[in-house]
Each structure stands twice: as structure tokens, then as C-alpha cells.
Amino acid sequence: MASNSLTTEMHDAMDKQLRELRSQIANINKSLSDHGLDIEDLRDEADNLIHGATKNAQRAAQHVQDEAVVVAKAARKAPMAATTALGLAGLIGFGIGYLVSQSHYEQRHRWFG
Known about the structure:
mainly alpha
């Protein structure tokens, strides 16, 4: 019997919270609508933005693939030049990474002054 009343109380409390949440959502929708914003319009705009971003990402991926093909062809034609260029790029990248890591190391361990 006590568990039945406890269950009823919990059910009533949850119903009350749901009513409050629905009321708050309705107020938010009304406020947005009063300011000229409609949730459906915002959702449509977001869908359009996502669609546009997807197209841009696909174009960028295609461009990267095309560039990779060009680089691969150039590397096949002149393997020594490609090896030299990649080695130089690797050394430059390593040097930049080393310098950045050292500057971060010094900043983290500067506890005095």
C-alpha cells in the first residue's frame, strides 16, 4: 500500500515537471516567434547550411584527391626530387614541432616569477 502511494506521488511529480517543461518550451517558441523567428524556419536554415557544408567538404575532398594524384605522378617522374622535397618538409615540420614543444615546456615550468 505504501509503495502504491509512493508510486502515485512520483507519477504526479513527474507529470507536474512535464507540464512545466512543456509550458517553458511553449513560452520559448512564442518568444522566438514574437521576435520573428520560427523554429521550423531555423531548422530549414540549419538543414540548408549542413547541405552546403557537405557539398563544400565533398568538393574539398575531391580537390585533395586530385592534388594527391598530381603529386604521385610528379613523384613517379622524378623520384629523387620527390624524396628530397619530402625529406626537407619532414625536417622543417620536425623543427617547428620541436620549437613549439620547447616553448610550451618553458611556459608550463615557469613557476617562479
